[in-house]
Request: fold
Amino acid sequence: MSLDVSRMLDGDLAGDELKDALAAVSGDSNQRDRYTLYGLVGDVLRGNSTPDDGFSMRIFERMRAEETKVEPGYDPLAE
Reply:
C-alpha cells in the first residue's frame, strides 16, 4: 500500500487503482498518516513551505541522518 500512496500523491493512479487507494487510505488511520507524511516529505523536497511546528525540518534532518540523496545545494533549512 505504501507504493500506492506514493503513486497517488504523484498523480500516477487513475480509475479503479485510484478508487482502491483512496478507499484504503480513508479506511485506515495508518494509511492516512502515511499519506500525510509522504505529502509533507514531498513538500520538503520541492522546497514548498509547510504550515507546521518544525515537522518538515525534522523530516529533512532525518533524511540527512539517513544519508538520503538530495539535490546538491538544496537545503530547506538554510535561511
In short: The two ends are 36 Å apart (CA to CA).
